[in-house]
Design brief:
Layout: H1 3-12, H2 22-33, E1 47-54, H3 59-68, E2 71-80, H4 82-92, E3 99-104, H5 109-112, H6 116-130, E4 134-137, H7 161-170, E5 173-176, H8 195-200, H9 215-228, E6 234-236, H10 237-241, H11 246-255, E7 259-262, H12 267-270, H13 275-284, E8 289-290, E9 295-297, E10 303-304, H14 314-329, E11 335-336, E12 346-347, H15 354-368
Parallel strand pairs: 1-2, 1-9, 2-3, 3-4, 4-5, 5-6, 6-7, 7-8
Antiparallel strand pairs: 9-10, 11-12
The structure holds zinc ion.
């Protein structure tokens, strides 16, 4: 590339030569040769979104937004209860190579159904036979789900072991969304950094210690399950629900080789860490981090990771995904994150190299979910 054309390209892309590393420069050159400025699209040309949500009525819209934004395959991260699950599976059947779904137990059955624990493993087998590509546990486990005696059910309750065991026998991944952001467990007042988000969703405050166990305790219960079943692959959503503290997550991942993460709706939190710490995290755990957005497609209105339900324009969606490409592919500093309701700060990008981008964008999810089974291209 000619020096002058390189300079004009960099200017166009808003990059100053002084702040540019050699790898970013090479990537900028590579993308410019293909005729597009940096970070308007994923450099890999294909992405798997390992964490989205959709209802049966919205599959068409979900696929068209995916098409517009280079998402080759989407993982619907859990439909709760047999009825809703089967409805989704039958609606998604014609699109097996584009979208898959995880089955989620309705944990309220622990209280309602005296035979739940003995029936549950076979319920899971039937869900997998019907097409479930994994098992998802939502955050009510450990936090609000109670047994018939009225006791909170711990994530590492031995009565649940046969369920995890069956998932292992079936060869499927087990996903956990356990607890929530740190701020949801802190006093709910205007000093809480997620004040705006809690205003929108007051039922997400778990600050009442008389009602809810501490966050760390529940996260440890989840880790106990991961430790107890080393043969099962676990997918811990939202950076193992601890994106505020990636050093601790990194220690967990060192200790537990079967712990994998997605960063759905946590790009804002990841980008709050220094670019150096972020890059170190992605580099060290490059085989176990999956791209995810938490983009939600519902008949009653969509959600971009977090925030209000609404119908998004093509431009708004393009911006949402492009912030993800920008974070992963450039070394830009102090730009807006994709989920503004989560907090009023800017993020620093990590600028991953091509090998790591391939893994994070699609290879890791492809391998973990064994997507070759569905002819995913
Ligand atoms: Zn989600």
């Amino acid at each position: 590339m000619e020096t002058s054309s390189r300079r004009s390209f960099l200017k166009k892309a808003g990059i100053t030569a002084a702040g540019l590393t050699l790898t970013t420069l090479c990537r900028a050159e590579q993308i410019e040769e293909e005729g597009e400025p940096l970070a308007t699209r994923p450099i890999t040309g294909r992405v798997i979104d390992a964490h989205l949500h959709a209802d049966p009525e919205s599959i068409g819209r979900c696929l068209s937004v995916m098409d517009d934004n280079y998402i080759r395959y989407g993982i619907n991260i859990g439909v709760t209860g047999d009825r809703s699950f089967h409805e989704f599976v039958s609606a998604a059947k014609p699109h097996k190579d584009r979208i898959g779904t995880m089955y989620a137990f309705d944990w309220s059955l622990i209280k309602k159904d005296p035979d739940f624990f003995s029936k549950a493993p076979d319920m899971l087998t039937r869900a997998v036979e019907a097409g479930a590509i994994g098992l998802k546990s939502f955050k009510d486990l450990g936090l609000t789900a109670r047994d018939r005696g009225g006791e909170l059910v711990r994530v590492d309750d031995p009565r649940l072991f046969p369920i995890w065991q069956r998932a292992g026998e079936l060869g499927i991944i087990v996903a956990f969304h356990t607890t929530d952001p740190k701020a949801f467990f802190e006093p709910w007042n205007p000093r809480n950094e997620r004040w705006k988000e809690l205003e929108l969703r007051p039922n997400w405050s778990f600050a009442d210690r008389g009602k809810y166990p501490p966050r760390d305790v529940i996260l440890q219960q989840r880790n106990n399950v991961i430790r107890k079943f080393p043969g099962i692959k676990f997918h811990c959503c939202h950076v193992a629900n601890n994106s505020e503290d990636i050093k601790t997550v990194s220690k967990w991942m060192d200790e537990l080789p079967n712990l994998h993460v997605d960063f759905a709706a946590r790009l804002g939190e990841l980008g709050r860490h220094s670019a150096k710490d972020g890059l170190e995290f992605f580099t060290r755990h490059q085989d176990r981090i999956m791209f995810g957005t938490d983009r939600m497609f519902y008949a009653g209105g969509d959600i971009q990771g977090a925030g209000p339900r609404k119908h998004f324009t093509k431009e708004e969606d393009r911006w949402f995904y492009q912030v993800h490409w920008r974070y992963l592919q450039t070394r830009d500093k102090q730009f807006d994150h994709p989920t503004p309701i989560q907090g009023d700060w800017k993020i620093d990008a990590v600028g991953l190299d091509r090998t790591i981008l391939d893994k994070v964008y699609w290879q890791n999810a492809y391998r973990l979910f064994r997507l070759e089974r569905f002819g995913v291209a």
